[in-house]
Design goal:
- By secondary structure, this protein is an alpha+beta fold.
- It has 6 helices and 8 strands.
- It has one domain: Peptide Methionine Sulfoxide Reductase, Chain A (2-Layer Sandwich).
- 34% of the residues lie in helices and 23% in strands.
- α4 links the parallel β6 and β7.
- The protein starts with a strand and ends in a 6-residue tail after the last helix.
Length: 176
Amino acid sequence: MQSLATFGTGCFWCSEACFKTLKGVQDVFPAYAGGNTQNPSYEEICTGQTGHAEVIRIIYDESIISYEELLRVFWFVHDPTQLNRQGNDIGTQYRSVVFFHDDSQKEKSIFYKNKLIENEVWDSKIVTEISPINNFFPAESYHQDYFLNNPQNGYCQAIVRPKFEKFKKVFSDQLK
């Protein structure tokens, strides 16, 4: 059965590269969600004025990979304690957010977040937002497969590649 998940982990180039390699994930594409502007451009998003977050939309097969497994990857591929930023990427568009599509995803996301808080996985407070999906718009086509298509880009070399390599080591048993 085909299902959707939508996560914001900072720059969507990093998270797209990771999630796309998981067994059971059929497609991943960069998008914008949670803002107040209709069909915003990347340039508008970067101003921080639209209220959108950079997100990825994941299309996955629940018979192969569960929403809980996707959440596990979500919490791993970014720092959920950084408010409105990921490293040097600063602004509300880089916030940590789970946009749930139904009550089951909402409950699972809250449960997982609370479990991480109870287990004191991070020294700092988790600031991840858990919100219903709204104002969702696909990003421009040049963002699709950005890391794959631009491996020599400076940002990809310095930021995306190290995260992707670390991810592949930890989730090697779940890769396609």
